[in-house]
Amino acid sequence: MLKIKDVVNGVEECLKKQGLSNDTIKQNMYTFYHPIINYHLSKGYEYYSPDITMELCERQRMRYENGEIGRKHYRAFVTAEFRIRSFVETGKVDFSIVKDSKHYKPSIEYMVLTENILNKTNFQPKYKYLMSIFIRNFFCFFEKRKTSINEITNDDFFEFIKKVSNTNPASVGLATHALRIILTYINECSIADLVFDLSIFRPQKAPRKIIEAYTQEEISSILSVINNETSKTPKRDYAMILLSFNSGIRAIDIRNLKLTDIDWKLGEVKIIQKKTVKPLTVSLNGKTLNAIADYILHERPKSESNNIFLQACPPFLALKSTSPLDAAIDKYCRIASVPKIKSRSFHSLRRSYAIELAKAEVPITIISQLLGHQGFSSDKIYLSFNKTHTALCAADFSDVPISKGFYSSPYFLKCFKDKKGGDE
């Protein structure tokens, strides 16, 4: 176990290595981290306790909802708690963006219970976070029905599944898994004696949504509004959007693109895809290469990072997520008066690239290879957008020569001519 003061001191050293100024670190320590230490000590805890820090965050949330503190102040407390917890668990501070779970915030009792339930699992961090959303959702639902966890019954599970199936049918499978985890924990800890057969719920696979891609005209409009007045990093944003549309590279791989990944002589990008962990080589046209070079030479700040695309503000590190890419494309669409279509995002540029290839009658096998897909099933969705090929399905066979078989015989041709026009 680590003393809370030692933990905060460790976080402070990590902040210094991150490149933050002494004044910024001093202000953060005084405003957010030292209150966490003092709250531990006021509760009689010399050593770090996740329950105590979570309790303090809950108090800050209530102050925020009551209008006593601002959202920024509250979020800073949540970030401090997240960084302290990551340091305790890994010995390093996770500087990832802390997402604000706007929904499903049960009382502190059930927040602690959620943490205890998840600690009993062996899930990877991302899936554990996903399960926490559904578990918190359930406890928010449960709190409105009962006053104590000891009052839980099978009916609570059944009604929750009904609620999810009405509000978000595609998530019934995940919700069922979360309930199975809760049910196991409740029975193992003898909180209640429940026998609820969750296997009766066999949710259907959610239909695959087809999200409309950007047209060439829309992309031209978007690129035309990127300048010094609309962005702090116009050359970076221009290069990323052009790269995505002209290569189909995923947003996560553009974010992770290294200076050494581009072969300038051959005009190629060679990467290991984050999603499939498979190598991919993509050729780039001169316009895209020039845009990337323009950013590197004239706008990219000096940095020890080997990533091509960096943050706009100090300490100029690699982009932490793909959120800035989605935010950028949304902003430029708004400025360029490009219609906002639900679910359309930066990833839709990749879809635009594939659709343009399909329109150019590039074989689906080649499209699949250029996109770095592992199979053809992922590419079927692009075929539905090829209006030229779709129109051919409605064509008749009057111009198709019949050279052999029964229908080419003189007898059939004579009968066909005699009966032609009989239905008119």
Describe the protein's architecture and organization.
There is one protein chain. By secondary structure, this protein is mainly alpha-helical. It has helices at residues 4-17, 22-42, 50-65, 71-90, 108-119, 125-143, 154-167, 172-188, 216-224, 234-247, 251-255, 286-298, 323-335, 348-359, 364-371, 380-383, 387-392, 410-419, and strands at 262-263, 268-272, 279-283. Helix 1 (4-17) packs antiparallel against helix 2 and helix 9 (216-224) packs across helix 13. The mean pLDDT is 83.
Strand percentage lies at under 5%
Spatial strand arrangement across the major sheet: 1-2-3
Major beta-sheet overview: 3 strands, antiparallel
Instruction: Give the quaternary arrangement of the chains.
Output: single chain
Which range best describes the helical content: under 10%, 10-25%, 25-40%, 40-55%, 55-70% or over 70%?
Answer: 40-55%
What is the overall number of helices?
Answer: 18
Outline the secondary-structure elements.
Blueprint: H1 4-17, H2 22-42, H3 50-65, H4 71-90, H5 108-119, H6 125-143, H7 154-167, H8 172-188, H9 216-224, H10 234-247, H11 251-255, E1 262-263, E2 268-272, E3 279-283, H12 286-298, H13 323-335, H14 348-359, H15 364-371, H16 380-383, H17 387-392, H18 410-419
Antiparallel strand pairs: 1-2, 2-3
Helix pairs in contact: 1-2, 1-4, 3-4, 5-6, 6-8, 7-8, 9-13, 10-12, 10-14
List keywords for this structure.
3 strands, three-stranded antiparallel β-sheet, mainly alpha, single chain, globular
